[in-house]
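quick one, two chains, predict together pls
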Amino acid sequence: MSAHFVRSQLIAPQESPRSDTGLSAWLRQRLFGGVLSTTATLLSALVLAASIWPTLRFLLIDAVWQGTSRTDCLAETVGRPVGACWPFVQAKFAQFMYGFYPADQVWRVNLTYAIGVALLVPLLIPRVPYKRVNAVLFFGVFPLLAFCLLVGGVFGLPHVETRRWGGMLVTLVITFTGIIGSLPLGILLALGRQSSLPLVRWSCVTFIEVWRGVPLITVLFFATYMLPFFLPESWKLDPLARVLIGVVLFAAAYMAEVVRGGLQAIPRGQYEAARALGLGYWRMMIFVILPQALKLVIPGMVNSFIALFKDTTLVLIVAIFDLLGQLRAAFADPNWATPVTLLTGFAFAGMIYFAISFAMSRYALYTERRLNTGIAH
Amino acid sequence: MSAGDNDTWNPADAARDIRTTRNTIAIDMVAVNKWYGAFHVLRDVNLRVMRGERIVICGPSGGGKSTLLRCINRLEGWQQGKVVVDGVELTEDLKAIDEVRREVGMVFQQFNLFPHLSVLENCTLAPVWVRGLPRKEAEAIALHYLERVHIPEQARKFPAQLSGGQQQRVAIARALCMQPKIMLFDEPTSALDPEMVKEVLDTMVELAMDGMTMLVVSHEMGFARQAATRMVLMDAGQIIEVNAPEPFFANPQHERTKAFLGQILR
């Protein structure tokens, strides 16, 4: 170009050139572009084929769907290789869901579930209004209501001891309590850890580090078997309640660290702007800092929730029977002792754990995307 | 007496003056010294700002301009000296600090809007939660000030959807919504693209014409000439020269002032 240039005509925007599209181009580019890529594609296909086919065979094709006892699930009776023995799950289903909750009282558990779902679903759907009322009902009222319904002893409901609880009920109670309890406690601990008051800061740091430093099994053991020795005789705490407290404190320590990460990511300018407007500490935190910080750590929080959900299986060691515990108890039933009972049971439990964990993770992803639109930093 | 005149400053006089002229003095900084660790960032700063004055503070970067500004609403503390804002002495006392912050608005270089809140919510947050205004009233005030900074149509948008100039005008409106007596501007146009500087400066000039007491850290000499009642040059943590804009630009006295103006007015 010469040293002097003046554009005589402005260029109007034009459409971008079409890139290579279509299936063949996609295949070539994404799956078979080069030796390495082709090898990787073939290997992946092999692994998938090798794992999916036997799984399908076991769960569906070779599975036994109807029956009343172990004999229906034996290869000799059926006359072919046998996959999953679904009648076993069917027979034990009530146990898996409710443990030994009295059968005539099971409606209370179902009612609790129904109320929980009825409150949770609108809370999760952004378009539904009255979020504040909904949140208060779900996080504040529902736990109390659930407690009354499940434990009983009020409103003429017969008392059901927690040692009769089991299965999915226990799993959900522990998870729900863990989440609801650890979230506010974790936030407070995270804020305390950043406090300028040394005593508050040190207490929070100590708490977090101690609880993060011990395995959950230790916590459960301590809460169940050791704690009674330290408490006065008259202080009889329900075994499940002891475990719940341990789980909440344990989860809170992790939650605190997750929240701290979010707090640290908020630019100093946000604090300064809030301060300059005259907002005090709590208002600044509640309206300016925490909404942003918590949004940033949604993936980490859900990670913690999922971990907590799966960690509930550890309560088995203190003789509380959650879903997995109930399952293992059912294995001992000689009426259902077949070579595939174990696999069937674990497949069933695995699917439940996976479905719930996966749902949590997808919902977190969805929330994250929704919060990110138009509100980028 | 001329405020900010370091050589003739007498703290005893200042104390008496504060009592007698309490209603006309907006800000009084007396012998303020501040250190960041070993670094002496503010050195014997004396500055008295009368109500309705517009002070533009300029000087080389790292000279303590922003720090001085941030002492006025106690975003920064200091080790020696005292600062009295609107008759309230700023100390460790949180009540006094909150009282001052309610009366002093601040606009930052990086806007510091709250990204999770809409423009309107940015503007009503403090009036509702600090002043305790009903939401309806706060929104009316917010719309009034958004109109004043010429962006009422953006009220429902989020900060990230606005241009830099618009964001900074929202930040100005947000501060004005607290109906402050004093406005602090910390390099309000330094983070803006050149074509957006003017819209922000125009807003500030309008504010100045309305009689707002303003302290502005800025290198926008056009704005200074147009709106400032006094110029302050800071370097190495101290006030080097204070003067009315005309003599300040036409006839700078101190070598550093000359050097600085020589560099930016070239």
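Residues 86-101+160-372 of chain A form a domain with the MetI-like fold fold (CATH 1.10.3720.10).
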